[in-house]
Amino acid sequence: MMATILRDWSYQYQWLYDGISRIAALSVGGEARFRQLALQGLTIEPETKVLDLCCGSGQTTQFLVQRSRHVTGLDASPLSIQRAKKNVPEAEYVEAFAEQNPLPDQSFDVVHTSAAMHEMQPQQLRQILQQVHRVLKPNGVFTMVDFHAPTNPIFVPGLAIFFWLFETETAWQLIQTNLIELLEEIGFEIQTQQLYAGGSLQVIQARKR
Q: How many other β-carbons are positioned within 10 Å of the β-carbon of residue 150?
């Protein structure tokens, strides 16, 4: 119940959501670093076509447009899209559910998502990853950062409290999901999986086979 109330508030009050995000991002050296974790080691050039999936109000989109002239942000929330257009006007935006992605087949070189997959039900997650595979060009790269079951026990209580306050059962389901296996099953080849913050965050980069 507490999580539901705080999540509702965080969507309604952008300052609260931003505050929560900054606190959570401290474990990896601040929000700017957190938002670029999944972009490390990627080749993104001015002509690279990039999809920022579940882009929110443009927190990572702002870094993507510095590298590419062809960035599209997709989000299901009209309020988030409105904020993103204001915050990062250089990108194109599409209001749609990630599992019902309306964008054409094989139209992106890179698909990025940051801290969104833990909000999805397991079946939704599978559908979203299938859509990612569909819209990527052959050899295109999917890169994501999200929660992971901590490998360092010191981080377990903090993550549990954070989930209890701000998240729902889908966050717990994600950290029990073997994303590597799921991505391989869908048709991706894993390039890298890196853990941060005592294992409580993971970055996965996978190439479309």
A: 20
Q: How many CB atoms lie within 10 A of CB 74?
A: 25
Q: How far apart are CA 31 and CA 75, in angstroms?
A: 20
CA 75 to chain CA centroid, Å, is 11
Helices 14-25 and 2-12 meet at what angle, rounded to 10? 110
- Give the model's pLDDT for residue 189: 98
Provide the b/e sequence for 172-195 (b: ≥16 CB within 10 Å).
Answer: bebbebebeeebeebebeeeeeee
First to last CA, the chain: 42
Taking the C-alpha atoms of residue 134 and residue 120, their distance in angstroms, rounded to an integer, is 19
Amino acid at 73: G
User: Residue ranges of the alpha helices (H) in the chain?
Assistant: 2-12, 14-25, 31-36, 61-64, 78-87, 122-135, 156-166, 169-175, 179-186
Residue 66's SS3 state is coil
In total, the chain counts a number of residues equal to 209
Predicted TM-score (pTM) of this structure: 0.86
Angle value at C-alpha 2, between 145 and 14, nearest 5 degrees: 55
List, for the chain, all residue ranges whose pLDDT scores fall below the cut of 70.
1-30
* Alpha-helical regions (H) of 70-198: 78-87, 122-135, 156-166, 169-175, 179-186
